[in-house]
Amino acid sequence: GQRGKSSLPHARERTLIAVKPDGVQRRLIGQIIQRFEQRGFKLVGMKMLQVSEDLLSQHYSELRAKPFYPSLLYYMTSGPVVVMVWEGHNVVQTSRTMVGTTNPTEAQPGTVRGDFSTHVSRNVVHASDSLEGAKREIQLWFQGQELLNWDCCDQKSISEV
Ligand code: GDP
Ligand code: MG
């Protein structure tokens, strides 16, 4: 494969992952973080917050016309969420695979949704669905200074880039 400068931005790819209110209530925060840590991704930002409807309406702006949108807002503001930014090679796509399909009915065992949820209305976790979406969501949820550039001591064992 290609080495050098051209592959660096890809290794620094970032995505937004959130433990939704049901995941927090069900004490799944640790298990979800563990999956991303053990996969080899690097945590570069994390906070717990009660989300405002304003933030959510921006986060889910594409879904505004959906019939389930009001119940989605209710669900997502029903309690605190833990929102994180994870960094690493192909992290956006790999995270979507780790999280599983939107509807847990179809989610494979081994995925977060396939292991911890049964219904689309309470699917435990959020993951950005594209590079552009990740960039937009990270800017929406985090201030620049809340994201840290730091060196993981095992980075050379995780990837050559
Ligand atoms: P995601 O990217 O896999 O989270 O899925 P979407 O972006 O399509 O939808 C965002 C979130 O809206 C999902 O994770 C669910 O929490 C919720 N959602 C999506 N479809 C439905 C639905 O048919 N019914 C309900 N109640 N919620 C839904
Ligand atoms: Mg989505």
UniProtKB/TrEMBL annotation:
Catalysed conversion reaction: a ribonucleoside 5'-diphosphate + ATP = a ribonucleoside 5'-triphosphate + ADP; a 2'-deoxyribonucleoside 5'-diphosphate + ATP = a 2'-deoxyribonucleoside 5'-triphosphate + ADP
MF GO annotations: ATP binding; metal ion binding; nucleoside diphosphate kinase activity
Superkingdom, natural source: Eukaryota
Location within or outside the cell: Cell projection, Lamellipodium; Cell projection, Ruffle; Cytoplasm; Mitochondrion intermembrane space
EC number(s) reported in the record: 2.7.4.6
Enzyme class: transferase
Catalytic residue positions: 126 (pros-phosphohistidine intermediate)
Record has Iron as a keyword: no
GO term, biological process aspect, one: GTP biosynthetic process
Cofactor: Mg(2+)
Keywords, sorted A to Z: ATP-binding, Cell cycle, Cell projection, Cytoplasm, Kinase, Magnesium, Metal-binding, Nucleotide metabolism, Nucleotide-binding, Nucleus, Transferase
ATP-binding found in the keyword field: yes
Binding residues for ATP: 20, 68, 96, 102, 113, 123
Membrane topology according to the record: Peripheral membrane protein
Stretches assigned to the Nucleoside diphosphate kinase-like domain: 12-149
GO CC terms: lamellipodium; mitochondrial intermembrane space; mitochondrial matrix; nucleus; ruffle
Function comment: Major role in the synthesis of nucleoside triphosphates other than ATP.
Similarity annotation: Belongs to the NDK family.
Name assigned to this protein: Nucleoside diphosphate kinase
Span of the entire protein shown here: 41 to 201 of 201
